[in-house]
Fold each of these.
Amino acid sequence: MNLLDDAVSRLERWQFLDAIAEPVRKATHAVVKPRLIRNLLSGIPTGHPLHPVLTDIPIGAWTMASLLDLRGGKASEPAADLLVAAGLLAAVPTAAAGLNDWSDTFGPTGRIGLVHAGLNSAALGLYTASLVARRTGRRGAGCGLALAGLGILTASGYLGGHLSYSKGVKVSHTAYHEGPTDWQDAIAESELDGGEPQLVNLDDIPLLVMRDGGQIVALDNVCTHAGGPLNEGTFEDGCVTCPWHGSKFRLTDGAPVYGPAAAPQPSYETRVQDGRVQVRARV
Ligand code: FES
């Protein structure tokens, strides 16, 4: 284990952070509950999480601002100041999307997310102070505050990478579920008569198969958001709601209709042959 891994592992064990996280999580859930806000911040319109895309703007703007500061010279001062201000503006929706993503994490992952948010808030404070210093003629202080902010932002970015690539936050949990491209036998049609969702294993992929109205539907049973078991969810209005964090997917095609899931649930074509339901991946 290298030094950075060791440091992150220590942060993951800071259980005292849970007492801070819980009220923040509750407040965030209350604010993001309306469908429009939840879906937008979760990334449903784009099919990908919003937060990682937005982070490029403040990180890029603030990095360029410090480069211009280090280059020096009167000519580059207005551009550097503009970049600091632009980064501050972009940080607001970036933080909102990140808070939405974090609010569905728990335990060690939630603790790292909280430290990530704390560092970002500190960086935001430093850049705000930097802008004020620049506007009040204290350019040296403004440049120094921006550099300090960039250092904190770098540490925070490392934790953000850890959350995505090591902890799989907002990574589709069906990313490697390709499913059969040829028709495969799944279940006897008669087993669907009760209307209950049935769990079927197909090439090690758990599928949820059921009747929805007159149609037989089949979805990957592993929620794309964080792996929740959809067959244990609730079924209503042609949709299934995941029991873990409330993502809602349309049964006919797996489209997400309510976050936090951004990726659609893989759905399968179905047909009946000799009383048996067969499925295959949509091509
Ligand atoms: S696992 Fe989070 S909503 Fe399904």
Amino acid sequence: MDRFALEPLLLSLRGLSFPGLALAGLLLLLVLCLRARRTRRPGEPPLIKGWLPYLGQALKLQKDPIGFMRTLQKQHGDTFTLLLGGKYITFILDPYQYPFVMKNHKLSFKMFIKNILRKAFSIQMDIISDLNNELHDCYQLLQGKSLDILMENMMQNLQEVFEPHLFKTTNWDVTHLLTFCTSAVFETTFATIYGKFLATDRKKLITELKDDFLKFDNKFVHLISDVPIELLGNTKSIQKKLIKRLTSEKLANIQGWSEIVQMRQHILQKYYTFKDVEIGAHHLGFLWASVANTIPAMFWAMYYLLRHPEAMAVLRDEIDHLLLSTGQKQGPGFSIHLTREQLDSLVYLESTILEALRLSSFSSIIRFVEEDLTLPSETGDYLLRKGDLLAIFPPLLHHDPEVFEAPEEFRFDRFVENGKKKTTFFKSGKKLKFYLLPFGLGASKCPGRFLALIEIKQLLIILLTYFDLEIVDDKPIQLDKNRFLFGIEYPDSDVLFRYKVKS
Ligand code: HEM
């Protein structure tokens, strides 16, 4: 889960009523004009504030993140501090310096995330509490044998989601790609992690939950901004409604909780004996983390495949070969069972997904500076100030032409070499340890990354095996930079595609 808000603030302002807007504007101007008076101290990185109080360089960065960062890098080197949405953030652009961020105990992820959890999900987290540590221990249930179980259930749930389509006529069905991916990912992930509603109107309940979730997710950037939630129109009520849907009382009507949900629920009940709403808030945070990035990631993987039929043909071939070699010829119904090793062997499939993530991930890895400290650098050490933020900005690396040839192009086989996974990428003549970071790094690295990749792979395998797929809209689409700095970007508009059962 992530992060902080600069652009979100702007979006929040858009969502306000006039009195709210005026009050918020006044408050911001007052508090943050004070912050803008900061000057660079000896030994600190170059300080770039811009002329806008509070916002600083936020608008320029949001408009063209890669271009603007490159310009600043040329002018100031690999390390500099920007004023962005009221925060002073020191960016580290040299990938060989990343390990410094991970190892330094004066840089805290927990301190950084605490406010976000409170604002976005209403989670009151004491960062030194045992609850926090115990919840963290649960992440092991997203690996090993527990992951095998999740994977098996996920395949079954996916097949259930797509079953109705299989028995349709063999005519083309035209639909919006993002809407399609949203439903498929939300329904499958929810069923796999939280289980299935016991009621007979299951389909209706999951659709309602998905619709509420989408309303909440739409407000997400507003929620994590500095604007008080009370000033954000109906955002608070949407958040509350969703939390209520995920309390212990409501979850009792869902069958088949995964191991991780069982363990989290057990821990949460121990700490919040009489506070079911607090438990619902934690579940909302986990649910959000499990779908909010997977949906757009799935969208981009599908979108690029639809736009690149030559890549789709190679993937189909790779999957067909595996199914044939494991004795799973395509029959009339769903019958695919693949182990993790078998999924892993599909190198072109994985490369396609990684390439889609490379192009669409605009996550930053952010830490709170707990004490003044010295940042070692080849061009001289820099002092960092207590209370500031430190950020690694992977999109610049993901779009670096020295690391990835023609970085703006989608090349489905970029992460394959001699028929195997390619893991060697170079910069300045040296092999890079970190070259692709859509899942973060160090203390905050995404614990759901294995499941996310499995889900997207399984979804693509089902679609490519059982359906013909074609893009209908030929319009070019771009990344919508709304969620800039905190995750996989959504497209700026939806596109139509069509699918039909293979004859
Ligand atoms: C393509 C899909 C996904 C992407 C790109 C992604 C990305 C990330 C990133 C970048 C972070 C780190 C946040 C930070 O540093 O501020 C993160 C954290 C997290 N992710 Fe994911 N994620 C994905 C899917 C999932 C799934 C499927 C799950 C759960 C099953 C999940 C669970 C989490 C959790 C619980 C955290 C917080 C970890 C902590 O508290 O330290 N994610 N994710």
Amino acid sequence: MASSSSSSLSNYDIPWVEKYRPNKVVDIVGNEDAVSRLQVIARDGNMPNIILSGPPGTGKTTSILALAHELLGPNYREGVLELNASDDRGIDVVRNKIKMFAQKKVTLPPGRHKVVILDEADSMTSGAQQALRRTMEIYSNSTRFALACNTSSKIIEPIQSRCALVRFSRLSDQQILGRLMVVVEAEKVPYVPEGLEAIIFTADGDMRQALNNLQATHSGFRFVNQENVFKVCDQPHPLHVKNIVRNVLEGKFDDACFGLKQLYDLGYSPTDIITTIFRIIKNYDMAEYLKLEFMKETGFAHMRICDGVGSYLQLCGLLAKLSMARETARAS
Ligand SMILES: Nc1ncnc2c1ncn2[C@@H]1O[C@H](COP(=O)(O)OP(=O)(O)OP(=O)(O)O)[C@@H](O)[C@H]1O
Ligand SMILES: [Mg+2]
């Protein structure tokens, strides 16, 4: 009894992103090209130096860890050096810790190499990256490097040229849904399909965010529906934003502005409002040339907001521009 209650407690405590982190490369969802390349590496055992790059929450860290586990199995502890942005990775660490690890003698199965994992490598200073160049070459017969980063351009060119680049992209709605269903079933989460849709909408291709939002909604409300999801995620409700866009398209400028004012007064940041507007427009059923025009104007407004001018006036100005685009489209 005691053990069951403590286990349910600990289950409750584990974030679902960790609980459902795939342990094997095959279990990683999406990015089929990247994953199949990694699977080949896991099978053959000869790992090249690699850089995984892509947006957050798409499975880079997960892939590297799974790959290292598959390559080294029981030797993982001695054979892998794992450093991420929370570790000091200045030039001294490259000179001492990484070099020492590369020189260390470890008995591994034939054809296997020690692995240095540098997660979030885009936060390494370029000095530290420079110091890595020669180390990567000198010890290449015994040690291989796996780097993960969000923007590959922050990795200096010489390192890029020593590595195979594997790109990850945002996951599709379908892929996220598939994974959510697995978790929903395992955790017995009560839901309605619209609730999962809302989670997918707010996650925008980021699996980590999708799982976190699912867990947050579940622990906050015990029921996953649209309302609860948007309350938890604190994003403007897409239906509300959709109404604004529809009013613009129907020529009801005042109503559109009123809807916008309501959102603004609720305290949503202009950035949240504009990104939701963009996503609504992208999926809105309207004439293509008009949609392109709308997206262009939204892009310009986004730029101004990013420059710091996030006033209600800017957002209203956007609605005015959209209304004018509609007028010109109708006139022509
Ligand atoms: N492709 C995927 N398949 C299954 N689960 C995934 C996938 N991508 C992410 N996840 C889930 O999201 C969590 C975070 O993923 P991961 O740490 O691999 O992201 P990341 O790509 O390294 O992101 P970051 O750039 O922020 O470090 C994992 O624990 C896992 O539960
Ligand atoms: Mg990561």
